Amino acid sequence: MNIWHDIDEGLYLLYFCRRAFYNEVSITWKGLQRLTMEPSSIELADLVERTLLPGLELESVQPEEPVLVKELPGNWTKLGAGNYAGVFTHPNLHDEVVKVYAPGRPGWENELEVYRKLGEHPAYSSCRHAGQRGDLRYLILKKLRGKTFYQCLVQGLTIPQQVIDDIDAALDYARSRGLYPHDVHGKNVMVSEGRGLVVDVSDFLKYEPCSMWDDLKKAYSYLYSPLMSNNPVPVPEWVLNGVRKGYRLFRSAHS
Fold it and tell me: Which H helix or E strand runs over 71?
């Protein structure tokens, strides 16, 4: 138990209630409950460092392939894996996810800087806490809810034009903040209640041009929109994986 943390939380709550009393801020009973029930970043970090990291074993065998989760402690669930990190959730986490970088893989410092530059934007996550235990570095991120483009195709769900427009606007916003959108593909963008989200921003400090999003938009305009936008049908994963590998070979041959 951290008594100083409890005192800080109590003082902050008293200060906020005082401002509400004098109409400096507005607060509802539901909002007051949320203030007293939401876990702090210190509590979240304690949960991660006490129950996840000691028993987690990550391995990145090939830089171009997702990391392998070889051991995962009980009560933790893998949500996904990228080339450098895995993303996990826990029953006690409602609005956050934990991204853990595999030992020896780069990108943790860069991703922190990206979130600092992005600030708050409805199409992006945000970083609540960053830490390190041993050779494992992690980020606690705001949870984004929805389906990736890849999941939509596999499940036969509609991807509206509004989602494409939202992601275009979000990428323009990132550029206005001095960032360089990179590696924006079907597993890194999401449909959430008809609006577009950008899931992975870890490569937004890379200067070299990246045509992935423009290529995806062309596929949407010339293939998906005329053929599947009104009557989407599930696409087998083996087909999508074949397209992904073919696209990678195409990019390698023309880079």
Answer: strand 68-71
Three-state secondary structure call for residue 152: helix
What whole-number distance in Å separates Cα of residue 40 and Cα of residue 250? 46
Predicted TM-score (pTM) of this structure: 0.79
Q: Options 1.25.40, 1.10.510, 2.20.25, 2.40.10; which CATH number does 147-253 get?
A: 1.10.510
Beta bridge partners of 191: 147, 196
* Model pLDDT, residue 204: 97
Domain 40-142 has CATH 3.30.200.20: yes
| Total length of the chain | 255
User: Where does residue 16 rank: exposed (0-12), middle (13-18), buried (19+ CB within 10 A)?
Assistant: middle
Nearest to 87 by CA among 226, 77, 31: 77
